Amino acid sequence: MGQNGLPAALQARLPFFYGWIVLACVCCAGFARQGPAVATLSIFVSPMSDEFGWSRTAISSAVSLGGILAAVSSPALGPMLDRHGSRVTLSLAVLTTGLAMMALSLTPALAVFIALFCIGRMNFAGPFDLGIYGAVNSWFVRKRGLATSIANLAQMVGLIAMPLLAQAAILYDGWRTGWLVIGATVLIVGFLPTWFLVVRRPEDMGLAPDGDQAPLDDDGSPRPELTQQEPRFTRHQALRTPAFWLLSLYTLLVFPVQAGISLHQAPHLIESGITPTTAALVVSAFSLASAISGFGFGLIVRRISVRVSLAFSSMSMAVGVLLMTAITSPTLAFISAVFFGLGIGGILTVLPIAWADYFGRRSYGAIRGVALTVQVVAQATGPLLSGVLRDLTGNYALSLWTFAGLVAVSALVAIAASAPKPPTR
Length: 425
Prior knowledge:
There is one protein chain. The protein is mostly helical. 78% of the residues lie in helices and 0% in strands.
């Protein structure tokens, strides 16, 4: 917060590090983030298409446009995050997303749907990502893997819950009620904790990352500096390293697959003979597998390395995508979702850790803001590509084979992405 009155008072009474309070608030924001997730939207694709006659390409364009807006804004948001912290960024993202999701219940036409959903999608891809991982990486260094895995677990819980909430509301009173429920959930869970309790960094409260002892000046006052031996790249220095571009290439390869399949997973299952309710359960199984995987990777990433973790995640995704090409029963649908979810969980946990570990906290927002442009463009491309190929061929087979090839190549890129040498002063 700009004024740390409430957090400072809490810290004085707490028997534990205030960073865990910040992490809890970030978890609430991460849960709320899943309102405009493509997995949530996938539950609405069939009922809205049936009512309005929209093509899958038209619906996918809302995801893609929101991603483009996030790509344009993220490089500017990153330096702002470094200066001011995550509180305002996350609070505004929660507020505007919740209101936009509720307004979707009034959708009269495609243009209105695209305008409203791309607001939520822009927040999902840009401000939420920067704010959540910016806060985690500011407050934790040595315990970054654990903290990131907890933050991602909360997001995966949201990704499990939101499609189920949407499906239950749709069954009860139609898709318009579904959007009201999703928007209200975003606002109730995400806004107040973030607004009142998130603080920019531990040094602002005289603390050090991970709850370690803060260094002191000669007069005994806390000294606001890094207490961990970690890299301190500027954005300019990071852009000159092979590691930055290899991580960016990895991002470019995996995120079209993540977003493309997440949006079209439920429609593909329904077209393969799976009932809508079972399809919603399969989507939630994928999210559950992601949650378990993400938490596990957060605990072991330091032991098996970032590169191996990312490569393993890519291969698990590839197996899941290949299984999706042959779905003939609910059992196979669940198996494919589990493999795909295991890979997604690893990527969503390990990749933010890689950016922070490789380049440090000082300019994390500025560096991540540039890299996020690559990510959101990739995420915008995936759903649109999948929708176009489905409309051209009449099924999802070609897009699934394309996606399997992309994630297989990404495994090789991950192995090549070594940590950069520390910058010269």
